[in-house]
Amino acid sequence: MMQSSGQEENVMSSGVSELPTFGINYGMVANDLPTPADVVTLLQTIRVSKTRLYDADSSVLRTFTNTGISFIVGVRNEELHLLGNASNAFRWVKENVYAHLPDIHISAIVVGNEIFSTNDTALMRQVLPAMQNIHLALSLFNIDHDIIVSTAHSFSIITTSYPPSSGQFDPAIATVYMKPMLNFLSKIGAPFFINVYPFFPYKENPTLIPLEYALFQPNAGIQDAVTNLHYTNMFDAQLDAVYFAMAALGYHNITLLVSETGWPSAGDENEIGATIQNAKIYHENLIKHISSWHGTPYRPGSNIEVYLFALFNEDMKPGPLSERNYGLFKPDGTMVYEFKFFDQPNASASFVSLGLSTMLLSFILSVAYIMHFT
């Protein structure tokens, strides 16, 4: 996660279901997190059946065998240099993906995270070859039509975003890196993964950007004078800026997947807006907004898959205080704040037999009562 510049699924056999298009990021840069087995129960209780790992930890994946919970797995940035070799990519897919099938559903592989917001051009050059070799390996296993290959981007790669129709990629990466990558994504039918945080532009410009605009609350919004499209929230404006940036390079039909979005419940003194109240409002309104199936002003009716950031507060993350406070839950399994999430009737009826630790028992009881989506 980096500061910015400016399939619908049916009920699984395990009984886990979710609102269409939503998942959650399962980061583990923290002390004393619940065991993966307890995380399985937590996700089942809040009725989330999609999650994203930042690596392909086999011990975690094995714990989720036959749970009905699907995964986006990741290639770590430091692994990319190895995957420029097709044999290494084949071995990576065999060991980290194919070995878990079909008992674990893996929906996508994210090859590197937010690399094009760094200054590491050597690392940037490794991304597309690694993506191509991973996709080739998937095709050799005949699973390339089942598993997406992409890479995740910080919104900071969009250097012009207001109004949304002016959306452009950073000129330093647009032609050299983004255009070849978009060409590849277009050929394989994969979405463009983007991390979207309205919190960042609000924090940087709280006097210019109304908090209501960032939190999906009623506000006057903005009018894009070029397209005459009206925007009532920052989230839609940011997504459309990415759509317009891709269109500027000649790619009009690539879809977006929001690989991260969230709002911190605490921050440093200068991190205006990082509060429990605002985090609660953002998540609840985001779920309502996406679940309306309205799409964005530029792409009305589009179904965008969204992964919330994050499942837990991660106390070992570097950077400002906010970086350690994006979780919906604390590492001990208790909720950071009460929030309306996915509808889960009778969720309390099945958790006792799942062998939960005492640590999570009391919180599950309360979650089963208060967590519902309206």
UniProtKB/TrEMBL annotation:
GO terms under biological process: carbohydrate metabolic process
InterPro entries xref list: GH, Glyco_hydro_17, Glyco_hydro_17_plant
Coiled-coil annotated residue ranges, if any: none
Transmembrane regions: 351-371
Superkingdom, taxonomy of origin: Eukaryota
This protein's record includes keyword rRNA processing: no
Molecular function (Gene Ontology), one example: glucan endo-1,3-beta-D-glucosidase activity
Enzyme Commission identifier(s): 3.2.1.39
UniProt keyword annotation of Glycoprotein present: no
Reaction equation(s) it catalyzes: Hydrolysis of (1->3)-beta-D-glucosidic linkages in (1->3)-beta-D-glucans
Any Pfam family: Glyco_hydro_17
UniProt signal peptide: none
Keywords assigned: Glycosidase, Hydrolase, Membrane, Signal, Transmembrane, Transmembrane helix
Family as reported in the entry's similarity comment: Belongs to the glycosyl hydrolase 17 family.
The name this protein goes by in its record: glucan endo-1,3-beta-D-glucosidase
Organism: Ceratopteris richardii (Triangle waterfern)
